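Office hours follow-up: a student asked to see two folded examples consecutively, so here they are.
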Amino acid sequence: MLSFLAVSLGKSLRFLLRLVRRGGGSALPGLIASFLSPNLLRNALARLPEGVVLVSGSAGKSSTTNALVKLLEAHGLRVFTNPSTANIKQGLFSAVLKEGGLLGRIDYDIAVLEVDEGHGSALLKDLSPRLVVLTNVLSDQLDRFVDPDFVIGKLGKLAQAAKESIINAHDPNLRSLKLENIAGAVCLAKELEQSSDAPSYALRFDSPEQLDKCSVISGTSPMVVDVFGTAIELRDPNLPHALNTSLALLATSKLVKFDPEIAQAVVDAQPAVFARNELTEIEGKRVNLRLVQNPTSFQLNVDELTRANSPLMLMAGSDIHDPSWLWTVDFTSLGRVDIVSGSNAYDLALRLSYAGVEIGAVLTDLSEAKSSFLSLEGELPTILFSADSMRRLRRLTGLAK
């Protein structure tokens, strides 16, 4: 009875909220459903014949989850998953509300769920994972977690609770976990380890030993990953994305009878998903979206920009509670920013001005900023935004479903 009440109320509330705010309405219904029927998520997942797969880490969760879902679907499985921005408790409950019947039952073969690196371990009783995939540990959310060791510990608990784990062994933080259930790991050939595109992880003062058995990514045009003796070409030249795709390929080979031709076709057709460095299309224009979380990630993204990233819009949202940290970022290499927007646009514009950066316009109205930005010509329109501005822009442009 509680499940019926929770699902009915949650579905109704979700419908009403999405009428008034496109792309919204996922958190509150899930929160209410979890309060009324705490076992709703656990019961729904327990009925899946092929179990539950969890994907977690600091970055790359969405890309890895999306690739794994597509690969499993291509191999004939019906896959239940959650939106990339709904990866904590209420978001997972909301996914059940969306896909489940009035009793909360979901008619799928397997679940592939993205879970937040700080919250996933607290949900282990509900999730009971068969397989856990770990992407990496970065230092770009220290405002949330204070110390990367906190994230490492949480991810370790997550992986240890599963029968098997798949990890990015290029990251020494994940190697330091010394998991006994590692079923697969991805690493880079020596020539790629020295690449400027190779990811930078949270700093360690020790050097955990390399794993004996590791699926190596090698080559350049294209890169190739060894999936337990099968070579799959990775057409995306972005090395972090190649790592994510490789993790998904290894996970697939552990979950189904792996068909190399099917896997290669999926990899070749893989579209971009919400990510920290995403290529997508807005109103017919190819746009590069880059999420920045704090001074470290803002600086990394600024340093990666080239002349091709034009026009350029920077957005500082309401999640930047203390705009003074903007002064710790060196913006001098930018030269010009075409649009500055977001709730803290004027604080950001002031910082840019002191750095000698030319500013085209400061537009706090999001619709006006979007329209003005898209009207500008350039090789690769690029937006750097904080999480609040990211969510608002994605809703406005229809990228949030």
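And the second, which I mentioned at the end of office hours:
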Amino acid sequence: MKTDVVVIGGGVAGSASAFFLALQGLRVVVLDKTRFPRDKVCTSTVNPYAMTYLLKMGVMTELLKDGLLPITGMQGYSYEGSAYRGYYEPHYPFVNYGHTVPRYRLDSAFSNRVKQLSQVTLLEDWAVEEILYHGSRAVGVRGQHGGRPAEIKADFVIDAAGRGSIVARQKGLFEPMTDHVRYAVVCQFEGVEPPDPLFTIGTDDTIGPGYFCVFPVTDSIAIVGFIVDSALYERVKSDPSGWVDAYVRRESWVGREWLSPARRTTEVVTFGPLAFTTKTIAHNGILMVGDTTGFFDPLTGEGIGMAIRSGELAAETVAKLLNGGADWEREHARYEQTFLTEKAESLEQSRQMHRMLKRPAAYNRFVEALSRNQEAANWAARSFANMLPPGERVSGRLFELVTSKQ
């Protein structure tokens, strides 16, 4: 088989890449080693930035049938239990709400959407084992399709395999972040009574410097997650279900009233360490997208939005190269610089928040300040949702807003 572009991985980043490549008039084959629907560890936050893409791409046409609860902002709780509420206003050019979409549903909706495109072929149960090269440039893949040897030739390869990337593994491109070691503990509850349709993130003396999150899916279902450090994870990993069930029933936990009538309906899934970097994300006719470009922490809820954005940028780069007249090395470097610059704003803000989480007194003061300043709280919500113009999403601006009305 020969195609213009082969995409390794059919999740959000891979499907988004295929969608935007098809808009560029290119033929695409998407390969995934599993079959849809499939699930994975994810807090499943789709913020207004990502939601705007999903609506434009037609992915929400299927998901709106699920009765998803519109999420209009976020709230944060301090170590002491004080809270702020920020809303996605003003919101132009984005929609002013998000959703929590269980990952198996999101991946399924994306894969169903790309199946509708005549220029895209999705092949499941296709495990890539080797990248094919002509000289130094990637020209296809070889592996197993349904347990049988298979090969696909292509003019370009997009790697959307995330942590399972064979390219990164063979070339040693992934490096762990030793200064930020966190683990995810995630499950779903039904019978939840959320007081507000908001994404909720908070901490306390039990899980700090980590944090908990309660993200409503519908008016009675929520995904509950904990991002914890190594010390706590050592205590959790032997019985994560028992630990979660005990934690959410604690008298002192701020979310107890929401979950007291609820029951856990899934196994508790754990995963980690979460944070890693990728040495290079563009080389030899291969562009990496989504989590294959590296991951820090789900605190800002941008994994899905950045996965889609990387696919869009990769598609523009590939189209320019395959239409001729562009320099491969220059366009590879431009893709890498553009995407990583956009991603860096999220990373900087997340790092700032984690520095405060390690200092309870500072984090308590921060939450208290936002609780008294609605403009700053709304700015924080929109910033976390990546709704601000490029270059404006800096922590200094937030602190200016906080201190201006104290």
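Two things to take away from it. Residues 77 and 303 are 22 Å apart (CA to CA). DSSP finds 13 helices and 21 strands in the chain.
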